[in-house]
Design a protein that fits this description.
The complex is a heterodimer of chains A (about 260) and B (about 325). Chain A is α/β, with parallel strands linked by helices and about 260 residues long. Chain A contains ten helices and ten strands. In chain A, helix 4 packs across helix 5. Classes of the chains: A alpha/beta (about 260), B alpha/beta (about 325). Chains A and B meet through helix 1, helix 2 and helix 3 of A and helix 4 and strand 10 of B.
C-alpha cells in the first residue's frame, strides 16, 4: 500500500484543485478520481487565508487529505512562510514544497528547494518536494530530511508527459525505497500509466483533468490508467526485443520468404 | 404590486427594471451612497460574450447570454455589437486550439483578417478566433442607464439605505445584495477579481480582445476615448483589500504582450472586488415567502442578469403577470 510519512493511502492519484470550471465540477472530479489527496495552493488560488475559507470548506467537505502547496513562491523565505501558514490553516505538517526558479516555465529552483526543505524538515514538516529528475538534487533532498520525492514529468501545465524517461528510470533505480511521485507535465492517462509502469508510486496532476472538456470523465480515466499502470508494473512486464517472437509455434509451416 | 429591491448592482437594477416594465411599483434600496459605490458590477468587464464564456462555463451561460444580447439593447444605449476577437501568442497556440474546440459561433481568422478587424494588431498575431455575434457595453454607463429608465417608469432609487429582506417594506422583496447577502445562503462564496483601467492614444480597438494564456484569462475592453479596461483575475477568496502587485503585474504583462504600446498607457484606476458565486458558478433565483433572492452571478453579472431579472419578475408577479414580451406577443396576435 502507498505510504507517505506513515499515512497509508488507497489511491495512487493526487489531484490539484486549480483551474476547474467550478468548485462543483472539482468536487465531482475528485470523487470520480477516487483520490485520497487533494493539493491546494494557498497563494495562487486564494489570496490570504481567512477570506478563502469558503473554498477550503468545499474541499474539506470532500473528506480527503489535504496537501497544501507553496505554488507561486519564488524564494526560500516566501515558501517557508507559506508552509507555516498552511500548517496553521489546515492543521497538517504535510507540505508540497515548490520554489519556482523561472516565472515563465515554472521550473523548480533546486538550490532554493534544498535550502527550504532543510529549514522545513528541521521544523517538523513532512515535505513533498517538487523537483527535477536530477539525481544529485534528489540525494540532497533526502539528506535534508525529505522522505518523498516528486520529480516532474515535464514543465507544469504542458501536458507533454514524461520528458526524460531515462532520468525518471534511474531515479527509481537509485531510490528503490523512497516513495516517488511524478508531479507536473502529465497530459493524458497514457502518460500516467507510463509513469506507473516505471515503478513510480503515484502521480500528481491538475491541469490535465481541470481543463479537459469533461473533467469528471477525465478524472475517472486517469484513475483507471494509474491502476492499470501499477498492476502492469507489479505483473512484471516482458522485456522488449528487436526481433519478433511469435506466440504461436511456426514449426511445420511453409516458409514463403 | 409594491416591490422593494435590495441592491443597485446589475442584478438589482435589471430585476427592478423588468418588474417596473411589467407594472410593479418598484423601490430600490442601495446601501452605497451613490451608484456603483459598493457594487462589484462597477468593476465588471461588460462583455456580452456567451460563446467565449462557454470555454469554461456551463451551457446555461450561453442560453442566458443570448437573452442578454436581446435584452440590453432594448434597455440601455451604448451596446456595441462588434463581436469578440480572441488571440494567443505564438507559443500558446495550443490554447487557441483548445478554446476553439470548447466554443462555437466563431470564425477562424488569419493575420490579415485580424488586421482588418483591429488594425493596431496588424502583424502581431497570425491566427485567432472571431466571435461576430457577441457585444459589449460600458458597465458604469449601463447601470446609470438602467437607473434612469427605472425612474422614468416611476420607480424609485434610494441611496445610503441598508435594509434586511425581513424588514423591508412592500408586498414583495427582491434581495439582490450579492455577496452582502451571504448569510442568506450556506454555499455562497466570494471570488475575488482585480482589474485596471488605462488610457492610451496609441491604440484603438473596436471590440473586446482576449489574449489566451495558460494561467491568466486576460481581456481588454475598449471604453472609448482611448480608455481600456484590463481584466481580470479569479482568486478563490472574499478578501477586499486593493489589487496586489502580482495580479497587477500579470495583467500589465498580458497587456504588454497584446500590444507594447500599452507600456506607455496611463494607469487611471486599479480596483478589486468580490464576485458572489455558488459552487456550480451559476446564478440562482429562489423565492422564500415574500422574498425572492437573486444571487451568484459570479463573473457573468451583465451576461446573465437579464435572464435572472425575467425569472425574478416571473417569480414575483407570477408567470401570468404579463411579461412585456408576452404583452407584445399578444398585441401582435
Amino acid at each position: 500500500m502507498l505510504n507517505f510519512y506513515g499515512v497509508e493511502l488507497g489511491s495512487r492519484l493526487l489531484l490539484g484543485t486549480a483551474q476547474y470550471p467550478s468548485p462543483a465540477v472539482l468536487a465531482d472530479a475528485a470523487r470520480a478520481s477516487g483520490t485520497d489527496i487533494l493539493t491546494v495552493s494557498l497563494r495562487r488560488e486564494s489570496g490570504r487565508l481567512r477570506e478563502g475559507q469558503d473554498f477550503w470548506g468545499l474541499i474539506a467537505d470532500l473528506d480527503v487529505k489535504v496537501l497544501p502547496n507553496t505554488a507561486g513562491c519564488h524564494s526560500v523565505k516566501e515558501a517557508v512562510t507559506t508552509a507555516e501558514m498552511a500548517r496553521e490553516v489546515f492543521g497538517t505538517s504535510w507540505i508540497k514544497l515548490e520554489v519556482i526558479g523561472d516565472a515563465d516555465t515554472l521550473q523548480p529552483d533546486v538550490f532554493g528547494l534544498v535550502e527550504a526543505a532543510r529549514i522545513l524538515c528541521a521544523d517538523g514538516f513532512e515535505v513533498f518536494p517538487y523537483t527535477t529528475e536530477d539525481l544529485v538534487v534528489a540525494e540532497r533532498l533526502l539528506e535534508a530530511g525529505c522522505r518523498v520525492l516528486m520529480p516532474w514529468g515535464a514543465p507544469i501545465g504542458t501536458g507533454l508527459g514524461l520528458n526524460n524517461i531515462y532520468g525518471l528510470r534511474s531515479l527509481r533505480a537509485h531510490f528503490p525505497e523512497t516513495p516517488l511521485v511524478v508531479d507536473a507535465g502529465i497530459g493524458k492517462p497514457s502518460h500516467a500509466a507510463a509513469a506507473m509502469e516505471l515503478g513510480y508510486d503515484a502521480v500528481l496532476l491538475n491541469t490535465a483533468v481541470a481543463k479537459a472538456g469533461d473533467p469528471v470523465a477525465m478524472a475517472s480515466a486517469f484513475a483507471r490508467a494509474i491502476e492499470a499502470g501499477r498492476a502492469a508494473y507489479l505483473a512484471d512486464p516482458i522485456e522488449p526485443r528487436d526481433m519478433a517472437a511469435p506466440s504461436t509455434p511456426v514449426f511445420g509451416r511453409a516458409s514463403l520468404a | 404590486m409594491r416591490v422593494t429591491v435590495l441592491g443597485a448592482g446589475v442584478a438589482g437594477l435589471t430585476a427592478a427594471l423588468e418588474l417596473a416594465r411589467r407594472g410593479a411599483a418598484v423601490t430600490v434600496l442601495e446601501r452605497g451612497d451613490r451608484l456603483g459605490a459598493l457594487a462589484c458590477s462597477w468593476s465588471a468587464g461588460g462583455m456580452l460574450a456567451p460563446w467565449c464564456e462557454r470555454e469554461s462555463a456551463d451551457e446555461a451561460v450561453v442560453r442566458g447570454g443570448e437573452t442578454a444580447l436581446r435584452w440590453w439593447p432594448e434597455a440601455v444605449d451604448g451596446v456595441t455589437r462588434a463581436g469578440t476577437l480572441v488571440v494567443a501568442p505564438a507559443r500558446d497556440h495550443a490554447e487557441l486550439a483548445r478554446f476553439a474546440r470548447r466554443t462555437r459561433e466563431f470564425e477562424t481568422v488569419d493575420g490579415d483578417a485580424i488586421a482588418a478587424l483591429e488594425p493596431d494588431l496588424a502583424g502581431r498575431f497570425r491566427s485567432g478566433l472571431f466571435f461576430p455575434r457577441e457585444a459589449h457595453l460600458d458597465p458604469r454607463a449601463a447601470l446609470a442607464g438602467l437607473a434612469a429608465r427605472l425612474i422614468a417608469l416611476g420607480g424609485e432609487l434610494r441611496y445610503g439605505v441598508e435594509a434586511s429582506p425581513e424588514e423591508a417594506d412592500g408586498d414583495a422583496v427582491v434581495d439582490a445584495r450579492g455577496f452582502a447577502a451571504r448569510a442568506a445562503f450556506d454555499d455562497l462564496r466570494g471570488v475575488r477579481g482585480e482589474m485596471l483601467v488605462v488610457r492610451t492614444g496609441e491604440i484603438a480597438f473596436a471590440r473586446p480582445v482576449r489574449l489566451l494564456h495558460p494561467r491568466i484569462p486576460f481581456y481588454v475592453v475598449p471604453r472609448g476615448d482611448g480608455v481600456f479596461m484590463l481584466g481580470a483575475t479569479m482568486i478563490e477568496s472574499a478578501e477586499r483589500r486593493g489589487p496586489v502587485v502580482r495580479s497587477v503585474a500579470d495583467l500589465l504583462n498580458a497587456a504588454f504582450a497584446l500590444h507594447p504600446a500599452f507600456g506607455e498607457a496611463e494607469i487611471l484606476e486599479t480596483r478589486a472586488d468580490v464576485r458572489p458565486a455558488f459552487p456550480d458558478n451559476l446564478p440562482r433565483v429562489e423565492s422564500r415567502g415574500r422574498v425572492t433572492y437573486v444571487n451568484g452571478l459570479y463573473r457573468h453579472g451583465f451576461l446573465l442578469s437579464p435572464a435572472c431579472a425575467r425569472a425574478v419578475a416571473d417569480a414575483v408577479l407570477g408567470h401570468e403577470g404579463s411579461g412585456h414580451e408576452a404583452d407584445r406577443e399578444r398585441r401582435r396576435a
